[in-house]
Amino acid sequence: MAEIEQQSAPGSEWWRTAVIYQIYPRSFADANGDGIGDLPGITSRLDALSELGVDAIWLSPFMPSPQKDAGYDVSDYRGVDPLFGTLDDFDTMLAAAHERGIRVIVDLVPNHSSDQHRWFQDALKAAPGSPERARYIFRDGKGPHGDLPPNNWESVFGGGMWTRVTEPDGTPGQWYLHIFDTSQPDFDWTNPDVREEFRGVLRFWLDRGVDGFRVDVAHGLIKKDGLPDYTPDPEGGSMGGDEDDVPYWGQSGVHEIYRDWHALLAEYPGERALCAEAWLPTLEKTALWVRPDEMNQAFNFGYLMTPWDAEELSTVIRESLDAFGGVGAPSTWVLSNHDVIRHASRLALTVESPQGDGIGPRTEPKPDRALGLARARAATTVMLSLPGSAYLYQGEELGLPEAMEIPDEFRQDPTWFRTKGARYGRDGCRVPLPWSGTSPSYGFNDTGASWLPQPAEWAEYARAAEEGVDGSTLELYKELLRGRAERGLGSGSLVWEDLGRGTVAFRRGDLHVAANLGEVPVALPAGASVVVGSGPLTGRELPVDTAVWYTLAD
Length: 554
Ligand code: NOJ
Ligand code: CA
What we know:
Bound molecules: 1-deoxynojirimycin, calcium ion
Number of helices: 14
Largest sheet: 8 strands, parallel
Shape: globular
């Protein structure tokens, strides 16, 4: 068989190969004991991330916010919510990360603000047609009395995408557009004021020294002219659908915004980076966000969504390297984040669970814990061998499963409220981390308070319980990250190999990678010597749901 070799796009910038660890601040570490993680908490735990071996951290939003969508509803883009600390705390955290050689990416939420943002409050007080209203998407309603929404679009979180306001004189008035919750009005990005404002926001954080931005809903900023009606495919995912021309996703007008930001970042020293959160139907389309003059990276959600199937996994890896490499960008790799079911549970799901549905007490059957963990460890063993940049989500290095038994009364995700409980939403992947000890809050703080309840069995996943323990998920991650760095696996070529049905196999230089996603054990080649394995091997047999890195004797 002819060797098929794939090359990752060349270049030496740090973000091409970086392992970036996502911190969800409210659930990482809580220094003041109020049950919500904070910036001083992050600073106090940076050593753990150095030991893990990550290159950078990305922080989900910590800016002032009413927290209707856990901070993705920003009311002031140039500050820190008192819940998380102060700007000084941010500067301290940034300096402490940089001292350890860890870069810091912050989350930028440009598609919408909070309804408590000064601009939106001004818009509510101003008249229809005013410059204040023109910063958002206000329209008159349909019907003789304007009491029908301007079009039929449905919010990602359930319910309609329009909310009617009461005009300052008390009469029922115009409607405003919100792709997400009613508390998250969309900006009108055709308005130069909005563009200028965000240039200022970028500069504010760049001046403080951040290394880049993860750009929220980077495919949503421009809406199709005329806001035409659109009915999504009921089978499609809520964040992007599978269709090509959704009037609020992936409109071509977004690209000039990112070209503008690219040029702005280039004025700053030190390779500042932009990463797109863009849920798009194909990898080819996603690659448009990372053309040489736009963003640097885009999350590879195609990879994240790939089921546990050898052929599909090989295909998505091949297509990712082709699509991103085709525009000179690195592929990214990601298995978990704060919006999806943790991969230690997702990979063992036997029922359909569209994104955002989550898992809760009434979900049956629940994914098997041991099976999910075995697959998650194997999936990560493959992921961290791939060329490009990899994203980790806090807690996956502990093997954390989704929290599946959160009682209804604790739920916080707007999805839960807007669908009246029909969809559990994303709280199950957002539960505060266990650090140590055997009772809540497992070292998350020292008061026991926690904004979402932590499952009792999480004591066994605590960092301290896994630290130095042979075979623990934490030690596996450390070994993989060390090996990835030492062998320079973030760049270079990948040569596909064939170990038979049900397997994914390739070579990175003299390091071979094999994963068994099939139903029977598979023999590794004679002379194989295992460098690291996601689980134990029996002789040369690679068991199902296991992956290894190995070398071959000459
Ligand atoms: C994507 C974020 O990751 C998600 O958590 C948030 O709810 C939406 N964007 C809206 O900002
Ligand atoms: Ca706190």
